[in-house]
Amino acid sequence: MASRTLRIGLIPGDGIGREVIPAGRRILEALPSSLKLNFSFADLDAGFETFRQTGAALPERTVEILKKECDGALFGAVSSPTTPTKGYSSPIVALRKRLDLYANVRPVKSVASAVSPIDLVIVRENTEDLYVKEEKTYDTPQGKVAEAIKRISERASSRIATMAGEIALRRQRVRDSTGSGGAAKKSMVTITHKSNVLSQTDGLFRSTARQVLSQPQYKDVEIEEQIVDSMVYKLFRQPSDYDVIVAPNLYGDILSDGAAALVGSLGLVPSANVGDGFAIGEPCHGSAPDIQGKGIANPIATLRSVALMLEFLGEEKAAAKIYEAVDGNLEEGKLLSPDMGGSAKTDEVVEDILKRL
Ligand code: ATP
Ligand code: MG
To answer: Is the beta carbon of 346 within 6 A of some atom in ligand 1?
Structure first.
């Protein structure tokens, strides 16, 4: 087998992003050589600090290097200014647009020994819905009225449903090959919408997703539907019932943060921003100014984001190694960071996980 070299952009950003992204680099460098994977890295700037120094939160150089040289990237976090700051807008939102990273993928997994184990993925559409930000305010005799456009397209709904279907198949492959989850766990995609009220927009999302997932390649994937409000209820009552959840942008945003709360710490939850042939791993947490500089940030969200990025770059085996090493650390429970009730430093958690690789 020939070896493969992947070039990864490292964008630590602000706050604890600077403490956890180096851990991401370390785990890539520590992957066993039998995987025949090599990495090279590009250090890239973005974030609020970059904005303060240069006037641009997302320098053109960062976008150019990602587009021209890189196969994937890791993004730490950006601090959001507490007061509106002229000229500043979130660099990760801009990156998603510039690189057409149309899916936000968020796996939510508890430790296997949990009373009710959770192992699900939320696949959120990332480019449209209310996030087209077409708003207006106007005066009427009764006072001001404000409106926002909710735009849903067949194209965006179709590609996000395809992504959800592919993720369901991949998860099934992993379960089959590792024997984890038992035979009981069945592949399923739950389409979330509110088409009982929004029959045209959410109706289009629903019917398009259904059509995509009814294709023969997904014949082993069960299709389920949930109205978003009942989805929230069931997700919190019985999270172990779910496998892959696909949703338009806004519902996906809300469900993702809610689901992250199910597993205890934000420091555990990874995500990836995915487009065709490119993926950016990004821990779900923010810049965590309250613990910044103390060396106690939990690196696991980042390490899992590294694994998730690798999955989308076609390196499932390498990803599985990382997940296993992380799970080993959590199951043993001896070297945990303070957010998990332990007293280990970021570096000690990283060392423990690297040993398990
Ligand atoms: P931002 O505006 O950048 O999102 P924030 O103040 O909202 O910053 P978050 O990063 O969203 O902070 O974190 C919310 C809480 O969770 C904070 O108390 C933070 O310390 C904690 N937290 C977040 N990530 C981690 C982590 N990796 N390890 C430990 N604690 C974390
Ligand atoms: Mg936050």
So the answer is: no
